[in-house]
Amino acid sequence: MITDTKDLSLHPGGTELTKNVFRTAMTSTESFRDKKVTLMTEKRRMPEEKPLKILDAGCGIGTSLAALKEEFGIEAFGIDSSKGSIEKAKELHPDISFAYCDASYLPYNEEYFDGILSECMLTLLPDPKDAICEWKRVLKTGGFMIISGLCERDTKDLDYAFRSSLPYDAKTSVICKNGLIDKEALRSYAQYLGLVSVYEKDCREELISYMADTIMDYGSLEERIKKEQEATGSSVLDCSVKYDPKKISYIAMIFKKS
User: Fold this and answer.
1) Are 42 and 72 in contact (CB under 8 A)?
2) Is residue 219 part of a domain?
3) pTM for the predicted model, two decimal places
4) N or C terminus: which one in the chain shows less Cβ crowding within 10 Å?
5) Is the pLDDT score of 1 beyond 50?
6) 108-135: per-residue pLDDT in tens?
7) Residue 142: inside a domain
8) Domain range holding 99?
9) How many domains does the chain have?
């Protein structure tokens, strides 16, 4: 049973990585550069400033949203297809709006959110493309979308702004394979939808730390998945996939809706 209430996030890097990538998303997206809200906490917010509406698609028990709300004063929304996770999230964070629904069919109007966050969920979806299309629908023009997850290891340094040249067929390429994000396919499909890639960061160090903690605390990856599912109703890993730590990494990608 997970008992650490300080950081119940299930993904590599925890809430610190979430906050760092979120901050980068705001400072890397022109629409938000001049807004004082970008680097302010809720306590320092000016009364006339409206909080950013942020959706966490695959929010689990709401850990990332709670951290972002505390740090940046966002208006937080979360959705998840796990009824148990949503019930737990509502219990832990009554000041956040949660909904039990499919990531590909959201109960929100078009261009409703300033930003969308999805951590370690894309590879668990039956059709990631449908979900991304839906996220784009509810995202405001100029808003940002953060997608993170496991991917194939890449020796190239990805900690820089990346512009895709559509090396894949955006319509037919498969975004996720064997529990891993295909970065090239995701860039290609995002650009096809009008989502511009503005930043990427390879987070292999965070993944290595995550794996080390897994061995120390649980003994194996399979046992961690089991315990997380028992405690929160969900897990960020696909238990049907055998991951080779030497061949995988963890990527955080930021897109802007043009």
Assistant:
1) yes
2) yes
3) 0.84
4) N
5) no
6) 999 999 999 999 889 889 899 999 999 9
7) yes
8) 14-257
9) 1
